[in-house]
Amino acid sequence: MTLTIIAPCGTLCSTSTDKVSFPGTVGRFTVLPNHAPLIAGLAPGEIVYSAKEGDVRLRIKNGCVRVFENRIEACVEKADEGAGKPEDEQS
User: Fold this and answer.
1) Which residue has the higher pLDDT, 85 or 70?
2) Closest CA to 42 of 60, 62, 58
3) What local confidence, expressed as pLDDT, does residue 11 receive?
4) Where are the domains of the chain?
5) CB of 79 within 8 A of CB of 62?
6) Which of 9, 40, 44, 57 is most buried per CB count within 10 Å?
7) For the domain with range 2-78, which CATH number is right: 3.30.1360.180, 2.60.40.1190, 2.60.15.10, 2.30.42.60?
8) CA 57 to chain centre
């Protein structure tokens, strides 16, 4: 399968993979080869995909994904590196 993940800052990933897991808005789901076509919303969490060097994790805020004919295309907003800090902390 081919996996492409894009964000406003550019292409985050363009690779081949055998498995991808997404944080869907109604629950986590995994896409395997020959998956049925789908379009789904993505919630905050991690996209996890298989690569030669092992599993790769990408934290996102939200987005959407389209799966069609072993092509997976996700458009996401990448999570901030400082995410998780309390909002009431002020300098």
Assistant:
1) 70
2) 62
3) 96
4) 2-78
5) no
6) 40
7) 2.60.15.10
8) 8
Chain segment 25-54, per-residue pLDDT in tens: 999 999 999 999 999 999 999 999 998 889
Output the DSSP codes for 16-83: E-S-EEEEETTEEEEE-TTPPPEEEEE-SEEEEEEETTEEEEEEEEEEEEEEETTEEEEEEEEPPTTT
Mean pLDDT of the chain: 90
43-52, 57-66, 80-89: segment of lowest average pLDDT:
80-89
Q: CA 59, CA 19: separation in Å to the nearest integer?
A: 17
Q: Per-residue confidence at 81, pLDDT binned at 50, 70, 90?
A: low
